[in-house]
Design a protein that fits this description.
about 170 residues, alpha+beta, elongated
Length: about 170
């Protein structure tokens, strides 16, 4: 038998703003570069302030939800970037792109929060979506939600986390 030793060089991609975020997968390079250009995105995906894209958001694949391991953070960053650029799951101009861009733009604004928006007909809740908003821009976000919901049902009210915000 003959034994051979092989030395392998591996390239690592490491964030300059968050050195704990690193990967040897070249597919993650663009995400890590985006993180360095937009450091607030780390806080968005690892904290609970954003309901749409925070740590526990249902927008992420199951294993990444409520998980702040390096792999999960990279996956959540990939999702947020993809939604904001409409390059992953949604098309340009959709409420999903709006939702991500709103979060990125207003995350540090006074009163930033999020909630579960629901359309109601006479008896039942119909369309729903988790969106972030600020008190100053809540009317804008409600209008975006109204533009997205189905007109199949007659909307009697819109609620955020169960509280009526429009009738």
């Amino acid at each position: 038998m003959k034994t051979t030793k092989e030395h392998i060089a591996r390239t690592w991609y490491r964030s300059e703003s968050r050195p704990e975020i690193e990967s040897h997968d070249s597919r993650d390079k663009e995400i890590i570069e985006w993180l360095d250009k937009n450091p607030v995105v780390f806080e968005i995906v690892t904290k609970n302030k954003s309901k749409a894209f925070g740590k526990k958001s249902c927008v992420y694949i199951g294993w990444a939800q409520n998980n702040n391991s390096v792999g999960a953070v990279i996956e959540k960053l990939r999702t947020l970037k993809g939604e904001a650029e409409a390059s992953r799951f949604s098309s340009p101009g959709t409420i999903f792109q709006y939702r991500a861009q709103f979060t990125l733009k207003h995350y540090k604004d006074k009163g930033f929060t999020g909630g579960f928006f629901q359309q109601w007909d006479r008896k039942y809740q119909r369309d729903c979506l988790t969106l972030d908003y600020t008190p100053a821009l809540s009317d804008e976000v409600i209008a975006e939600f109204e533009g997205w919901i189905s007109d199949f049902y007659t909307t009697k009210k819109i609620t955020i986390d169960g509280e009526v915000v429009k009738q």
